[in-house]
Amino acid sequence: MKIYCLCAVAIGALFAAAVPASAAGADAAASPYTPTGKKASCINTRQIQSTDVLDNQSVLFKMSGGTYYINHLPNRCSGLKMQDGFSYDLRGNNELCNVDVIKPVRSGGASYGPCPLGEFEEVTKASK
User: Fold this and answer.
1) How many helices (H) and strands (E) does the chain have?
2) How far apart are CA 32 and CA 126, in angstroms?
3) Average pLDDT, the chain
4) What is the CA radius of gyration of the chain?
5) Where does residue 1 rank: exposed (0-12), middle (13-18), buried (19+ CB within 10 A)?
6) pLDDT in tens, 35-47
């Protein structure tokens, strides 16, 4: 089953600082998200409420129940930030895992080449 995630690029821009310093060299103190130290190989796709593309190497997943995960792709994914979201294929289960790939989707439904996912890092909203 092919799933399309039409992520709002403008909203993703608001979270561009959310990538921890270890992943993007950004100042972690300025990030609206704080790593919890918990990592997961897979997340349940039925619990994904929304996604935001932070940059060409990071995607924020908001889960039901208020949990957030950032997936730091091991490599840059050309066009991810500039396109109309991404798609992924499920292989018989409802989990998106670090062995899966996403494909940036262009207007009209055409997609770019596959981009491997990394681990899912649980984060919380930092206090103001």
Assistant:
1) 2, 11
2) 5
3) 79
4) 14
5) exposed
6) 999 999 999 999 9
How far is Cα 10 from Cα 82, in angstroms, rounded to an integer?
10
User: Two tokens at 2?
Assistant: 């092919």
Report yes or no: 86 and 52 within 8 Å, Cβ to Cβ: no
């799933």: which residue's tokens? 3
Whether 33 and 21 have beta carbons less than 8 Å apart is answered as no
Domain assignment of residue 97, given as a range? 2-125
Number of Cβ within a 10 Å radius of residue 110:
10
Q: How many domains does the chain have?
A: 1
What tens digit of pLDDT does each residue of 93-128 get? 899 999 999 999 887 766 678 999 999 999 998 766
Cα 78 to Cα 104: distance, rounded to the nearest angstrom: 8
Q: Torsion angle, CA of 50/127/22/53, rounded to 10 degrees? A: 20
Q: Which residue has the tokens 């130290």?
A: 37
Would you say how long the chain is, in residues?
128
Residue 72 CB: number of other CB atoms within 10 A? 19
